[in-house]
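Onboarding guide, step 5: your first structure request.
Type a short instruction followed by the sequence, for example:

Predict the 3D structure of this protein.
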Amino acid sequence: MTPAPAPPPLLYLDVDGPLVPFGAGPYPPADDPNPLLARIDPSLGPGLAALDCVPVWATTWMAEANRWVAPRLGLPALPVVEWPEPSAEDGRGGVHWKTPALVAHAAGRDFVWVDDEITGADRAYVAARHPGRALLYRVDPGRGLTGRDLLVLEEWLRAGP
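The system replies with C-alpha coordinates like these:
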Protein backbone atom coordinates (compact mmCIF):
# COMPACT_ATOMS: atom_id res chain seq x y z
CA MET A 1 0.00 0.00 0.00
CA THR A 2 1.37 3.40 -0.99
CA PRO A 3 1.53 5.93 1.85
CA ALA A 4 -0.69 8.97 1.51
CA PRO A 5 1.12 12.02 0.15
CA ALA A 6 2.15 14.59 2.74
CA PRO A 7 -0.19 17.57 2.98
CA PRO A 8 1.11 20.75 1.37
CA PRO A 9 3.18 23.02 3.60
CA LEU A 10 1.58 25.83 5.55
CA LEU A 11 2.42 29.45 4.72
CA TYR A 12 2.17 31.61 7.84
CA LEU A 13 1.71 35.25 6.83
CA ASP A 14 2.24 38.28 9.02
CA VAL A 15 0.61 41.54 7.89
CA ASP A 16 2.43 44.51 9.45
CA GLY A 17 5.84 44.77 7.80
CA PRO A 18 5.58 42.03 5.16
CA LEU A 19 2.26 43.02 3.54
CA VAL A 20 1.89 46.54 4.95
CA PRO A 21 5.42 47.93 4.56
CA PHE A 22 6.63 50.77 6.74
CA GLY A 23 9.03 52.33 4.19
CA ALA A 24 8.85 55.78 2.67
CA GLY A 25 6.63 54.92 -0.30
CA PRO A 26 5.33 56.42 -2.54
CA TYR A 27 1.96 54.90 -1.76
CA PRO A 28 -1.43 55.55 -3.31
CA PRO A 29 -3.79 57.89 -1.47
CA ALA A 30 -5.91 56.16 1.14
CA ASP A 31 -9.68 56.37 1.61
CA ASP A 32 -9.74 53.54 4.11
CA PRO A 33 -10.38 53.67 7.84
CA ASN A 34 -6.79 52.43 8.15
CA PRO A 35 -4.67 54.51 5.75
CA LEU A 36 -1.82 51.98 5.95
CA LEU A 37 -3.91 49.51 3.95
CA ALA A 38 -3.13 51.53 0.81
CA ARG A 39 0.44 50.25 1.17
CA ILE A 40 -0.61 46.69 0.32
CA ASP A 41 0.66 45.69 -3.11
CA PRO A 42 -2.28 43.93 -4.79
CA SER A 43 0.08 42.31 -7.31
CA LEU A 44 1.33 40.04 -4.51
CA GLY A 45 -2.03 38.27 -4.27
CA PRO A 46 -1.76 36.14 -7.43
CA GLY A 47 1.80 35.19 -6.51
CA LEU A 48 0.79 34.12 -3.02
CA ALA A 49 -2.21 32.20 -4.38
CA ALA A 50 0.01 30.37 -6.89
CA LEU A 51 2.35 28.98 -4.22
CA ASP A 52 1.91 25.25 -3.57
CA CYS A 53 0.99 25.63 0.10
CA VAL A 54 -1.87 26.50 2.42
CA PRO A 55 -1.75 30.18 3.43
CA VAL A 56 -2.68 30.97 7.04
CA TRP A 57 -2.81 34.36 8.75
CA ALA A 58 -0.18 34.54 11.51
CA THR A 59 -0.82 38.10 12.57
CA THR A 60 -2.24 40.11 15.42
CA TRP A 61 -4.84 41.26 12.89
CA MET A 62 -6.40 37.82 13.48
CA ALA A 63 -9.69 37.40 11.54
CA GLU A 64 -9.66 41.11 10.62
CA ALA A 65 -7.00 40.18 8.04
CA ASN A 66 -9.77 38.39 6.13
CA ARG A 67 -11.90 41.53 6.20
CA TRP A 68 -9.26 44.14 5.34
CA VAL A 69 -6.20 42.47 3.80
CA ALA A 70 -7.36 39.40 1.86
CA PRO A 71 -9.71 41.37 -0.44
CA ARG A 72 -6.93 43.82 -1.35
CA LEU A 73 -4.79 40.86 -2.41
CA GLY A 74 -7.63 39.05 -4.17
CA LEU A 75 -7.33 36.16 -1.73
CA PRO A 76 -10.20 34.19 -0.21
CA ALA A 77 -10.70 34.13 3.55
CA LEU A 78 -7.78 32.27 5.08
CA PRO A 79 -7.50 30.25 8.27
CA VAL A 80 -6.14 32.23 11.22
CA VAL A 81 -3.69 31.14 13.91
CA GLU A 82 -5.36 31.65 17.28
CA TRP A 83 -2.71 33.01 19.62
CA PRO A 84 -2.45 31.74 23.18
CA GLU A 85 -2.71 34.13 26.08
CA PRO A 86 0.59 35.87 26.87
CA SER A 87 2.80 33.99 29.30
CA ALA A 88 5.87 34.58 31.42
CA GLU A 89 7.74 32.33 28.97
CA ASP A 90 7.20 34.73 26.03
CA GLY A 91 10.42 36.20 24.73
CA ARG A 92 12.69 33.87 26.69
CA GLY A 93 16.05 33.54 24.99
CA GLY A 94 15.06 36.09 22.36
CA VAL A 95 12.44 33.77 20.85
CA HIS A 96 9.52 35.68 19.33
CA TRP A 97 6.23 35.09 21.15
CA LYS A 98 4.69 33.72 17.92
CA THR A 99 7.32 31.01 17.42
CA PRO A 100 6.14 28.38 19.95
CA ALA A 101 2.53 28.85 18.82
CA LEU A 102 3.44 28.35 15.16
CA VAL A 103 5.44 25.20 15.92
CA ALA A 104 2.46 23.87 17.86
CA HIS A 105 0.01 24.86 15.11
CA ALA A 106 2.12 23.21 12.40
CA ALA A 107 2.15 19.97 14.43
CA GLY A 108 5.10 18.57 12.47
CA ARG A 109 3.85 19.73 9.07
CA ASP A 110 6.29 21.58 6.80
CA PHE A 111 5.86 25.35 6.92
CA VAL A 112 7.08 28.74 5.76
CA TRP A 113 6.76 31.69 8.12
CA VAL A 114 6.92 35.17 6.58
CA ASP A 115 7.45 37.90 9.19
CA ASP A 116 9.61 40.96 9.78
CA GLU A 117 10.62 40.04 13.33
CA ILE A 118 12.26 36.62 12.83
CA THR A 119 15.70 36.17 14.40
CA GLY A 120 18.32 33.49 14.79
CA ALA A 121 16.76 32.57 18.13
CA ASP A 122 13.52 31.69 16.34
CA ARG A 123 15.38 29.60 13.77
CA ALA A 124 17.21 27.71 16.52
CA TYR A 125 13.95 27.13 18.43
CA VAL A 126 12.23 25.72 15.35
CA ALA A 127 15.21 23.57 14.37
CA ALA A 128 15.27 22.02 17.85
CA ARG A 129 11.53 21.42 18.20
CA HIS A 130 9.98 20.97 14.75
CA PRO A 131 10.47 17.65 12.96
CA GLY A 132 9.33 18.90 9.55
CA ARG A 133 10.94 21.29 7.12
CA ALA A 134 10.63 24.96 7.99
CA LEU A 135 11.65 28.17 6.28
CA LEU A 136 11.58 31.21 8.54
CA TYR A 137 11.69 34.03 6.03
CA ARG A 138 12.41 37.49 7.38
CA VAL A 139 11.10 40.38 5.29
CA ASP A 140 12.51 43.89 5.53
CA PRO A 141 9.58 45.89 6.97
CA GLY A 142 10.76 48.99 5.13
CA ARG A 143 10.07 47.45 1.74
CA GLY A 144 7.66 44.61 2.53
CA LEU A 145 7.25 41.37 0.62
CA THR A 146 8.27 41.56 -3.04
CA GLY A 147 8.00 39.44 -6.17
CA ARG A 148 11.64 38.43 -5.65
CA ASP A 149 10.73 37.14 -2.17
CA LEU A 150 7.91 35.09 -3.67
CA LEU A 151 10.42 33.44 -6.01
CA VAL A 152 12.53 32.40 -3.00
CA LEU A 153 9.44 30.94 -1.30
CA GLU A 154 8.42 29.13 -4.48
CA GLU A 155 11.89 27.63 -4.87
CA TRP A 156 11.90 26.35 -1.28
CA LEU A 157 8.43 24.87 -1.65
CA ARG A 158 9.36 23.21 -4.94
CA ALA A 159 12.49 21.64 -3.40
CA GLY A 160 10.27 19.55 -1.16
CA PRO A 161 11.47 17.06 1.41
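Each response can be followed by summary notes, for example: The chain is about 30% helix and 10% strand.
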